[in-house]
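Q: Structure tokens for this one, please.
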Amino acid sequence: MKKIRHLLGISGGKDSAALAIYMKNNYPDLNIEYYTTDTGKELDETYELIRNLEIYLGKKIVLLTASNDEENHGYDSFDYLLNLKFQYLPSSQARWCTQALKLAPFEKFVGDDLVISYVGIRGDENRDGYISKRSNIQSIFPFRKNIWSEDVVNKALQNKNITFLSELFRDCNFTISSDFTDIIQQEVNIRFTIKKKAELLLECDTKAFNFLIFSFLQTTDYPLSNSDDFELINNNDILVKEDIFRILRESGVGVPKYYDKIEFEVDGKKGEYSRSRSGCYFCFFQQKIEWVWLYEQHPDLFQKALDYEKKGYTWNENESLAQLILPERIKRIKEDYIKKDNDKKQKANISSKLIDILSDYEDGEIGCAACFI
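A: Here is the predicted structure, written as tokens:
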């Protein structure tokens, strides 16, 4: 058995911070190493969150950077890479910032060690998250019903493994239902996909599914093949957005202030804006309304972002920041945001009422829910 390192990255956002607190509270025996990758372009609230977390965790959060003091020529990580290597701003088509500022320092920190990387993707998010291409790094998702990464599940539930998976429960302490056994023995095909099979197994018995996948991992080269047990096998928690905010508040670590909604008004119509994610203050993935938030709430940082565009590159594909902050453009962005927000609330209200309507009927009485839309 080789030694396994347990790592958890702190992005500066709510989910990774809540995950760190959750893991300390629920799995105190795991010797987790915490790290953060510093771009040099984070909001002050990010650094405040990291300081608060260190106090709560009782551990140092290791600071990773893309350059060291000997070679950075006085630049922070982002400016070092921009000025001395890439010479152009990152974009959705050329995301050198993610690779060079985040992934590369992390993989250097890991080296050739066997690593379990805990990732804070919530149970109400429909995405898979980062899965390393390096065989010595394995991702685990404690907030989801399915804690395993997609690559692991896809390999485990292949048809060639049906006999092996079925026999796993013969000599174990698990008592499983015939439904669970039937699902295992069902072959996947175009209509009955691996994803669907995994969903049914999880719904039928989450802990049995976790035992199934962990046992399969013992036959592979994944890091967890070097462990006789894994505490998260018994995990069946599903944490959503509301849980994340609750964990941060109850722990005393607090919610980063950039999540606080700030009211604005346009032609008598009121709206609220805030920042939706952590990361660099000039992140090209942020919404137009978040650029307006930055301009109005952190004008000094907005000016710095604007200064980067002087070389002819822009953060947004269709307009520069100078164009974005023209009064009429800001007004239009806010109006569009208010409209989209109201539409979203209206749809959510319709969906809520639809659920109430359907719950008043016995099964089989209604042919199609679309009749009520």
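A few notes: Residues 259-372 form one domain. Residues 3 and 114 are 7 Å apart (CA to CA).
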